[in-house]
Design brief:
With 128 residues, this protein is of the alpha+beta class. The protein has one domain: Roll (Thiol Ester Dehydrase, Chain A), CATH 3.10.129.10. It has two helices and six strands. The chain has a six-stranded antiparallel sheet with strand order 1-2-4-5-6-3. The chain is globular, with a radius of gyration of 14 Å. The relative contact order is 0.22. Keywords: Hydrolase.
Length: 128
């Protein structure tokens, strides 16, 4: 399904747990994804969120279309120093030409770490 070998997804340790256009869930370790102060890097949360939103948009688009990211924004709510974070993506809009997802990243205690919104443009796949 999701080719991750040699990608940022693999490097970050992101593991897709559930994947459907209506809901996606993935986990990511904090270790190896920190900034110099030992906290989960905000950019790592955004990578997790954008991965989920992009996969969801691609699933919604179908096999003859592609999803191209056009917007991502994130609000970071709390710091995490260890363990695993979980991202859960749910659609805000699944249209013919765009798909938008809200992604909530939580720590192992279920506390919200980050909230992100990702919008992708849906286009016809280029000829092979």
């Amino acid at each position: 399904m999701l080719r991750t070998a040699g990608t940022l997804v693999e490097r970050m340790g992101i593991e897709l747990v559930e994947a459907a256009p209506e809901r996606l869930v993935a986990t990511m370790p904090v270790a190896g994804n920190t900034q110099p102060y030992g906290l989960l890097h905000g950019g790592a949360s955004v990578v997790l969120a954008e991965t989920l939103g992009s996969v969801g948009a691609a699933l919604h688009a179908g096999p003859d279309r592609v999803a191209v990211g056009v917007d991502v924004n994130a609000t970071h709510h709390r710091a995490v120093r260890e363990g695993t974070v979980t991202g859960t993506a749910e659609p805000l809009h699944l249209g013919r030409t765009t798909a938008s997802y809200q992604v909530v990243v939580t720590d192992e205690a279920g506390r919200r770490v980050c909230t992100a919104r990702i919008t992708s443009q849906l286009r016809d796949a280029p000829p092979r």
